[in-house]
């Protein structure tokens, strides 16, 4: 019995009252003095000045409640915040001291700095006028999943580290594979299964490494090379000849993956006339060309929804080529558009995924789960684990050795992993499959509205590629060549004032000769730059071959019909402003 216990034993009521007073003091301390001292002395060795969890339980409840209130206020008013920050680079350093505080600070002071320090430098991705890149979705159930994940904090690299983390992940990814209509071979009950990765890029490089190892093993296996040292020598020789492939519209993460995997990358042309979809014949020609050079194509990224234009590669013709090259690993990058597969009308695409070794879509883009949550599905999980398994003695355990459990560390690059399945679970249960379908439909409907509005002004705009998956890509049409001498042209004489020379046909930038295309690019870029400077909407621009284009994405869950109409009106008025300037010039 220590001194305190002895006193407690002798004077129980005094101590009870004393503890009550102390509790009250702690609440007050959150407001006044900060984190306060520890509530329980822990022997003479303990000189810590802050409780083990940073705050007392009571302080945590108050701080968390206040934070949740502020988060709710943030979401309910995000539309009225400035969408883009209005600060100069390096703004933040000036708002903070040069060193970390020597003594802990009270929570309310920390919380205040969200508004003072952080908010001025935020680009609000959930703002309904954020129509740039692709969306990064957020939702309350997913936020609660993050909160629980942080609370439980288990870097569950193998099953025994917390069986629930592994088992929930397996179950919710099976659910998701079914919702997306993927072939049954991607489910965990067979030889496949799903795993949560941090990002689509991470999924790609992980598969690329597995592809590399599988390719080498098969090639050397056929040559009957088994002696370890010889195998290693030959493997390194072969590695120097490996080539990863993707179309020239494949996301840059494939090229980056090849850098990390230490192999070459070559792109296959995806033509404008094919709406930037990779075609089997072009792929075959590239494979033959590389093979003739003594190189070994071992990996291919195909796209369901490219970043530029949401193009979908021609899976049917690629599948024909794949039959002739069974050693090439095919990965489908469906980072954004994969979410659309929740709609049964797209399940014919899902069924085509039987031709790929791996398929990845990011719920953190369009499917209401907060970053990070990229869902990678694989038909033969052994392909991944054979390449990535390393079992040092300290990771050995009876469960892993029995082979009855999944150790997700063998499906990924890092060892530790977060409990991310919770946020998927919470989202799937909150929305239900039908709720997810209505969410995607909503984005698609307002996306179609935008495309239709664009079509109502084909005098001003040209849509460059078929609008798809809530993305429309367009250019501004160039001014027509003058058909009359300048002196004859008063520009407004009973004519449509929107166009300077109404009797001239409006040329299409996509078909235009080089000079006109250059002019169209310049106009489009001017329109884009003005919209960018005015910061009412956030759009992104892109370059498609030699065409400068603007992308508008309506996949943001907060975007509604009237935001789309406003975006269109802003684009029209900005375009007219730019055209008028050029007409007057
Ligand atoms: C966004 C995107 C990526 C990259 O996603 P990360 O998760 O940020 O790595 C890759 N491919 C496509 C098609 C994308 O749209």
TrEMBL record:
Per UniProt, which keywords does this protein have? Decarboxylase, Lyase, Pyridoxal phosphate
N6-(pyridoxal phosphate)lysine modification, residue list: 365
Renumbered residue ranges of the record's region Disordered: 25-51, 484-511
An annotated GO BP: amino acid metabolic process
Q: Where is the composition biased (Polar residues)?
A: 28-43
Q: Which organism is it from?
A: Acrodontium crateriforme
**PANTHER family per UniProt:** GROUP II PYRIDOXAL-5-PHOSPHATE DECARBOXYLASE, MIP05841P
Give Gene Ontology CC terms: cytoplasm
Keyword Lyase attached? yes
Its protein name is Aromatic-L-amino-acid decarboxylase
